[in-house]
Protein 1
Amino acid sequence: MIPTYPDPGPAGPAGLAAVTAGLAAVAWLGASALGASAATLDPGQAARARCRLSDAAEFTEAFGAPLSSSTRRDGDLELLDLFYDNGQAVFRRPADKTQRPFLLAGMRIADEEMDIGCGGKLALARLSDLERIERFAGLSGVSLKALDLSTQKDLLRSLPFDTETQWPDRVPAGFDPDRILETGKDPGMGVRSLHREGIDGRGTSIAIIDQPLLLGHVEYRDRIVFYDATATPGVEPQMHGSPVASIAVGKTLGVAPSARLYYFAVPSWKQDNRYYAQGLEDVLRLNASLPKEDRIRVVSISFGGFKNIPNYPLWEKALRKATRQGLYVSTCSREPLSYLNLALDFQKDPDQPSSWTPTDWASKAPPNPDRLYVPGGNRTVASHRGPEVYQSDRDAGLSWSAPYLAGLAALAFQACPGITPEKIALLLKETATPMPFGRVVAPRALIERCRAPLR
């Protein structure tokens, strides 16, 4: 996560990714934690337990008070265990969201895990269930068919959804999920007009260092030329990789859709700079073996808290080395380029800077007329849930803006092969469009300025 401002950030197999992907195996405590008591779970009442919706109060109302309870951490999650004499119920919530209730994640009776719907599609039965939805994944993969959403316009504006969300007949007037998904694919700021002129990243290479990637997604699978998962053996695709890959090089929503993609999977949930430093070193080592025309010029890392996790000197050393070798490294850090992100108004033209405003969390930053702003919120991105699944995100963090900047750097390297990373960073700021809240990236002006000395 980015410590300065709220951000979805990376999540590990035991973290938020487990929530967004459907519940992974529950980490049960041993039977020795249980004791003898009149507090007994009735298997015949298991249908009353609603995975991902029942909180602890609702559960105890249905099944009675437990023998005992305890809390523990599991990655980015906080777990609540309720112990009965013949079983256990486990609840969880994001560890940094202590204001939210614990929601049921699993139930075990006499060493048998009960089927309470954790592995299937989440189906909401009443409007009050919307209050239990985990805000990061939102309505993605959720069935809403039983609900009347006609009065829920504001809520639907704030929750992500995806192409697997099942909608009811009753939705707010003017709410069109298909149109929102299609509009959100546009990178905006005139990027597609550059694509039509052949400025689309062709001949350039971008490396992404992030969580394990779903390799087969239709949005970017044809752009992948290299994938290294040696740092994450056996880990399934996580939620972070597909969005960042699609924003950088996606064929319908990417900033540089013709760039080659080299991908290095790292365990970002371990919160250690050595993985990012090693990723950069691996990029440089690979570059040394590639023909000059295929070498990586841009690296995207959707993380920004380098100073706050172990082995920062390793990261600093690797970053300096990469920059000296001519790589533009885009991260969520304030160095070398400080920026915040923007969200699109779906009713307006994505190519116009006025159609974008600071995301909710970015709007809380102190005013700075020179601060750079980059698209990130209200974008449609590829999802790790399946090879043809797309998600409409809402108030995204900088994780979705770092690959946008990486894509712009690839366009600049294509248009101006001799440009330096330092010059790209400078031109991104100098060519940005002034707005009341700061300066918005201007891709066409960036390309025109970098080409100006060559004319």
Protein 2
Amino acid sequence: MIAVVKVADYTNKTAYVVPVNLVQSGKEGNYIYVADGDKQNAVAKNE
């Protein structure tokens, strides 16, 4: 029996993990929108 094993040798504790369908594409590259603020005063930010 033969197996292929991949080891994750890189981690980033400050990285965001989002579903791929939330990533938008534009002229300047990929981006997502982030809600900033509380429920009453939320503002969309382009990150």
